[in-house]
Amino acid sequence: MAKRKKAVDPKVAERRAARKAAQQALADGAASAPARPFEGLPSEADWVALREVVPAASATARTNAEHGGQDILVVTLLPRLWPALKRSDGVVLVALQTASSSGDPSRDVAAALLQVLDMEPGTALEHLDLPESGPRLQDVLDLDVPFEVTVHESFEYVLPTDGSAPDDAARSLEEAADGLVPTVRLDGVDAAYWCRMGEREFLRWARAEDPELLLDALARLHADRVSALDDGSRFVGAFRSCGILVPVWELAAGAEAADVEKPAAAFAPALDDALAVTDPLTPEQRRARAGLVSRQVSLR
């Protein structure tokens, strides 16, 4: 007897077809990813830092008038890598660290946001098919609203504030917070994050300048042996992600975030001065730049 073919849920078939179409569009170059997906948003460097190097944080944003003018929270991570969540108290959370990407995180996050806005409180958007072309965050958010970051010691932002009980997924993520890398955002400069990894401390400073010009500037300082933040620190290299660089310094043993506030603030003008130089690099500076490039790490 011939076996019957198992009936396929129409919704499942629709998701598979949409995913296949989006993947093919990417392969054909029809949905080319922008080099700097968060460019044009308030605090672009913080968007990149929250996506790549900060474990638990939330930031304020608001949809524009066309999309309801609703306050939302942009967060680093949600339970089970959900793209978005509408908490039981009605607060909308959209995540930057998720399981999949079309290559344009601005489009991905915007697609998740637009879907979760229409969902009932206490509901998670558990899966996001690779979106086709459509609105990006730059089209959906009110760009005049500051992107104000709060770094958390746990995943407390997933829990409702109205006293209702969290679901099991939110509770499990909150309980898993013991393994978080301690992280603090500096107050004196933008998008700079102190962290402690084991027994070592680092400063990771996301910068929105053109990466090639920033590498030139760092090479000038490094060749002149003034690339350290202070006597106890050393410049160790940079991450590259979402079209920008995140330079990294190893700090003096035991240094706290407060200890690096003044050195970072004092270093900022020196870096700005180096960025303003337009002369060709000297041989020593070119060698320093080559060393920086060889140690550069590209994320995603």
Task: Summarize the SSE layout with pairings.
Elements: H1 10-28, H2 44-52, E1 57-62, E2 71-75, E3 84-86, E4 92-95, H3 105-117, E5 123-125, H4 137-140, E6 149-151, H5 168-175, E7 183-185, E8 192-197, E9 200-205, H6 211-223, E10 234-241, E11 244-250, H7 257-276, H8 283-294, E12 297-298
Parallel strand pairs: 2-4, 10-12
Antiparallel strand pairs: 1-2, 1-6, 3-4, 3-5, 7-8, 8-9, 9-11, 10-11
Helix pairs in contact: 6-7, 6-8
Structural notes for this entry:
- With 300 residues, the chain is of the alpha+beta class.
- The chain has two domains: 34-179, no CATH class; 183-298, no CATH class.
- 33% of the residues lie in helices and 19% in strands.
- It has eight helices and twelve strands.
- The protein has helices at 10-28, 44-52, 105-117, 137-140, 168-175, 211-223, 257-276, 283-294; strands at residues 57-62, 71-75, 84-86, 92-95, 123-125, 149-151, 183-185, 192-197, 200-205, 234-241, 244-250, 297-298.
- The strands form two sheets. The chain has a six-stranded mixed beta sheet, covered by helices on one side.
- Strand 10 (234-241) and strand 11 form a beta hairpin.
- The longest helix has 20 residues, at 257-276.
- The chain is globular.
- The relative contact order is 0.13.
- Mean pLDDT is 88; it is low at 25-31.
